[in-house]
Here is the input.
Amino acid sequence: MNRLKLYLLALTALAVCSAKADEGMWLLQLMQQQHSIDMMKKQGLKLEAQDLYNPNGVSLKDAVGIFGGGCTGEIISPEGLILTNHHCGYASIQQHSSVEHDYLTDGFWATSRDKELPTPGLKFTFIERIEDITDIVNLRIAAKEITESESFSSTFLNKLAKELFEKSDLKGKKGIVPQALPFYAGNKFYMFYKKVYPDVRMVAAPPSSIGKFGGETDNWMWPRHTGDFSMFRIYADANGEPAEYSASNVPLKTKKHLNISIKGLKEGDYAMIMGFPGSTSRYLTVSEVKERMEASNAPRIRIRGTRQDVLKEAMNASDKVRIQYANKYAGSSNYWKNSIGMNKAIIDNNVLGTKAEQEAKFAKFAKEKNNTDYMNVVAKIDEAVAKTSPIKYQQTCLTETFFGGIEFGSPFMVMDKLKEALEQKNDSSIEANIKVLKEVFNDIHNKDYDHEVDRKVAKALLPLYAEMIPAGQRPMSRQVPPQPAYEGQQIPYWQEQEQNPEDLYPYCQGEQEVPAYRPEDYEEYTRFASRLHEPRPMAEFKGGREAMIRFFEQNLRYPESYKGTGTKVRLFYSFTIDSLGMLQNPVSLPENILYPRNTGKTYDEFRDEALRVLRLMPA
Here is the structure.
C-alpha cells in the first residue's frame, strides 16, 4: 500500500569545496511552523511559504503532482505538459508498444496534438488542499468511539474522510477524492483533498538506450548517468474539469507551470526537490532490521531472481515476449535490486552495530529516568519480532511465488458455483459460470501474457517454494476449531495467521505437531498450490442472501459518467469478517470481469462505488 506523503525535501549546494545537504520531512502546510522556510531562505530560496503552498490561491504545489500510482510529475507548460521519469512512464510506454511499433526500443515523439496517445488507466493527481484533522480524531478517541490503534486503520480513516468530504465545500466537484492519513506516528492526522484527472496521453519518450541506460546494473546506484525522462499531457473537458477520455477533450489549462531554464548551473545555486517520495524506516530496532533482511529481502531476492532468469531467457529469444514482459520484468527487478543493495549496505555500513549502540544509549537513558516503559520497550519489540519473523518469511515466500510470480490463477468462487450448478444439474447456471470462466481465462491471456512463459515460471518457482518452505510449515486449508472470533465466519489463511498463528504453523507450538498437507512429489504439490485459496464456510448476511441482494439494490448507485452506455461490470472482492462481524480489508481481486471488453476504460468508478457499499454493510 502506498500512503500519500507530501514532503518538501531541500538539498543545498554551498560554494565550498565539499557539498552539504540539509534534509528532513518538511510538509508543505507546516513550512512556517517547522521554520523550514526560514532555513531555506538562508540557503538562497527567494520564495515565501505561500508561494510554495497556498490552498486559497495559486502556488508551486499546483505545478507538482502525482503521476500514475505514486511517481512525481511536474507541469512544464500552460497546457498540461507533464515531465516525469522514464521509469515512471515505462509501463505506459510498454502499454503502447508492439513488435510493429516498438516504442521501448525506438522511443516515441508526438509531432502534433492529434498524435498524442491516450493511455487508459493513467491518471494525474493534484493536491487541492490539506487540512489538519488531528483534533477531530482525538475527540473520537476521547469519546471512546474508537481506540487509539483503530485510529490508524483504513476502515476508520476512509469513513472519516467520506464524512468530512460530505460536509466540505468540495462536495460535488468533479474529480475530488478525499484521503485521511496519520503522520508522526499518529501525533498528527491530515485530510488530503486530491483532484484526479483520468485522461493523460503520452507525448514523448526517449529510446530505452537513453532512458534506461545502464539497465539493472546501474539501477539504485549513484551516480547514475541516464536520460531518465518521459513526457505526457493532461486532458480535460471544455470547462477544464476532470473527464474520462473523449476525442472532444482538450489540453488542461493549468494554474501554474514550471519554466525550464537553459542558463545552466553554477556553483552555489540554490536547489530543492519537491514531490512525493517513498517512506523511510530509520527508527527500526536491531531485531526489526534483521527481520527486514532475512524475512523480506532474502526470500524476495531468491524468488524474484529465479523468475527473472526465466523471463530474461524468454525475452531474449523473442521480440514479442520482450515487449510483453518488459514492464513486468522492470517492476520485479526494481525491488529485487533494492533488496540486494539494502542488505549489502546494512552490512557494509555496520548498521546493526550502530543501532545496537543507539539501543544501549537509550537503555541507559531509560534507567536514569527510571521509566519502566522505556526500559522494557525494546525487549517487547524483540519478543514480538521473534514471533512475526517466521510468519513474515513464509508470507514473503507465498506472495512472491503465487501472487507476484505465477500469473495464472483459478477463480475459486466461480469454481464453487460451477460445482454447485453441476451437482444440481442446473443447465442455465452451468452455462453462465462456464461463460464467466472463459472471460477469466481471456482476461489472464491478455496482450501482455504468454502462457508458455508463465508455465516455465511456475515450473521454476513451485519446486523452489517447496524447498524454501518445509511441508509442515506451508499454509493449508482446514477448519479451525470453533472459537467466538471465528465461528461461522470465512477467515482466509492470512487472517488466521495474523490472529492465531499456532493454528497454522506447527513449530509455534513447540513439540505438539499440527496435521499438515504434505505433498510428496511435484504433481501432488501443484494440486496443493491450486487449493491455497479454498474458502471456509461463508459468513451469513443478516436476513440471508435475499436481504443482502436488497441491501445492494438499495445502496448501489450506477456511476453518472457511464449512464446511457449500457456498460456492465462484474467485480470480485475478497474481505475478512472480524470478531465483531465487521467487514475488514476489502480488496479488488485480480480476476475482475469487465463488460464490454476492450473499451480502454479502467472502471475505477465502479470499483469505488463497490467499495463504498461494501463498507456500508451492517455487522
